[in-house]
């Protein structure tokens, strides 16, 4: 990447961090308004937003790995019939709003959003629960890290491994992944087996199918209760949407 491109990219990231700190919920006319997604009830987007629902169009997108289009379409059709179990899991608690988070390890906006999600969950520890979805879009290194993350969830250490990956400059081959995994106390033999298992592949396929039906063309992506958001957004707006969802008495699905 050329120096000029690096400066532009750095400026964009700085702009996102600045925008998300603004008091959007207190600006005139900035309260969120919602529009139902006609073919995907009960979900909705921010009003007037056709594809992405973030306060800014900042997200990282790339064509997904090539695969059989018919198989991919078939998986999306299956998930569309009843998306909630694939999106939020089946262990929900009444009164707790689920937040499905779609991320990519090499996405700079994801790192900013994760700080905001941590803040939200710290402020409201009993109101929301986070469901992680790995959406690798940057080739084999991203795919490898995503597989490790999904496999680590089977040992209850997904977030510990993810946070370590975020602080590791390059995780490009399985040996480096397993070294990081050992550092966080994972059973690396089990992790290696799970990474190549059909079950982990099925999890990644379901996430891709969810991304297809919700229109996630890049990362980060969020589904906060009923509200679908794609891209960077200020923390004040994220919190306002989360509070709106928490105030609704009916279950999401």
UniProtKB/TrEMBL annotation:
Listed InterPro entries: DSBA-like_thioredoxin_dom, Thioredoxin-like_sf
Gene3D superfamilies: Glutaredoxin (3.40.30.10)
Keyword Disulfide bond: yes
Pfam family, any one: DSBA
UniProt protein name: DsbA family protein
Residue ranges of every copy of the DSBA-like thioredoxin domain listed in the record: 99-239
Keyword flag Signal: yes
TM regions (residue ranges): none
Keyword vocabulary terms for this entry: Disulfide bond, Oxidoreductase, Redox-active center, Signal
